[in-house]
Specification:
seven-stranded mixed sheet, 9 strands, 15 helices, Rossmann fold, 410 residues, two-stranded antiparallel sheet, alpha/beta
């Protein structure tokens, strides 16, 4: 935000015919897919597709290494999945600001959507840009990212009965949940405010007299809510979950971050969960609809956009991933006396089991498929297969949606 001195300086510059531009600030937040699990080694796969080969050229410098943005700096707060050991990584935007595990201040060799998002902003704006990214794996909107105006988490009667049958202390469980509610929401807000209290610490090109403007917020989250069978009840069809509460809480989240950051019309991009791609069914489809719903609310018209990430899912890699799952299942069957196991009588020793599994895999996955997998994938399906092509396309699409909303503002 601009100080009184900054406003007076802007007025003076305007009088002299010089336009003062506040530095654009973009916030990126969410769980493990906002962290980003695509290894840099999968970059080459982007070039195999003529449609995305130009994007790969933007992602690499003349030396063939990941590009370094000319005008974009980043502050990235993250931490270990099970701990509170948050740490900040800063610097000029390049690859390596993806998932970092237990070493939050060190380059993890991965990217999330921040990389191409920042490169797109760099190309479009040609001026100093600051990204503030906060992301932690395994965090839900209903609990850890719960916005203040959503109120306290309320256990359903069905869940309370279930906990009683499990012999759990109900009051202790409620206290534990209350302690977790909103914890990462506040980590996020506190970090953003801390960085913006001294932007020059992260972005040396920041000009205090020009001030800054929070120009966008990107939200990429959802998996933990999707698979939460305790918070979201079954819908009318009795088959898929009713995720309408997620829509309500996400709308609360948008209002609350705008209020807490004093940015009432800040463009907000919802990265709609795209795991399993366009062929997804059941709960995944229901959840996507709930996640995108706030963008259609009248109060958010023109300043909230839902970007579907399912079209960026690497379907050809998912086919190979399904075959890997079959190999894993066979490995399990070989160790048990199951009626469907080739080793149901237990006659195979460990060496014979390994040989059988090796042959099974060779017959199921061709050398060409194995090579494609090694080139394009680096993680599990819930992390978009760790495919850099997918994350690169997401980041680019988020930037385009954000820029479109910026152009529509007075």
């Amino acid at each position: 935000m601009k100080s009184t001195a900054a406003i007076l300086t802007s007025v003076l510059l305007a009088t002299l015919g010089v336009e003062a531009k506040p530095m654009k600030v973009f916030i990126l937040a969410g769980q493990s897919n906002m962290e980003g699990h695509a290894r840099v080694e999968t970059f080459d796969y982007i070039g195999d597709d003529p449609a995305t080969a130009p994007l790969l050229k933007q992602m690499r410098g003349p030396d063939g290494k990941p590009a370094v943005a000319d005008h974009v700096w980043i502050s990235y707060l993250t931490g270990h999945y099970e701990g509170n050991a948050n740490g900040e990584g800063t610097g000029k935007l390049t690859a390596g600001f993806g998932a970092r595990g237990s070493n939050p201040t060190q380059d993890g060799g991965k990217i999330g959507p921040e990389f191409t998002f920042g490169l797109a902003m760099d190309a479009a704006l040609q001026e100093p840009v600051l990204l503030i990214k906060t992301a932690w794996g395994g965090r839900s909107l209903n609990t850890e990212f719960r916005p203040p105006s959503a109120g306290p988490y309320v256990f359903s009667e069905a869940r309370i009965e279930q906990m009683k049958k499990q012999g759990k202390d109900i009051e202790a469980e409620k206290a534990k949940k209350a302690k977790e509610c909103g914890r990462f929401y506040h980590f996020m807000i506190d970090h953003v405010k801390s960085v913006l209290a001294d932007p020059k610490r992260v972005c040396p090109a920041y000009v205090p007299a020009d001030g800054y403007e929070i120009s966008g917020f990107i939200w990429l989250q959802g998996f933990n809510d999707l698979v939460d069978g305790n918070t979201y009840p079954k819908g009318p069809d009795g088959k898929t979950n009713d995720y309408s509460k997620y829509s309500e809480w996400l709308a609360d989240f948008i209002r609350d971050v705008r209020k807490d950051l004093k940015a009432p019309k800040m463009p907000f991009v919802i990265g709609v969960l795209g795991v399993d791609g366009l062929n997804a069914k059941g709960n995944t489809v229901s959840f996507r609809e709930a996640m995108a719903a706030p963008a259609a609310m009248p109060e958010f018209k023109g300043n909230v956009a839902a970007v579907q990430t399912a079209p960026f899912w690497a379907e050809e890699l998912a086919v190979i991933d399904a075959k890997h799952a079959k190999v894993k299942q066979m490995g399990y069957l070989l160790k048990v006396k199951d009626k469907n196991s080739p080793n149901k009588d237990g006659s195979m020793d460990e060496a014979q089991q390994k040989e059988y599994l090796k042959k099974f895999e060779a017959e199921l996955i061709s050398p060409a498929e194995a090579a494609k997998w090694a080139r394009g994938a680096s993680n599990a399906g819930y992390h978009y297969l760790g495919c850099a092509k997918t994350f690169a396309l997401m980041g680019k699409a988020f930037a385009e949606a954000n820029l479109a909303m910026m152009k529509g503002r007075p």
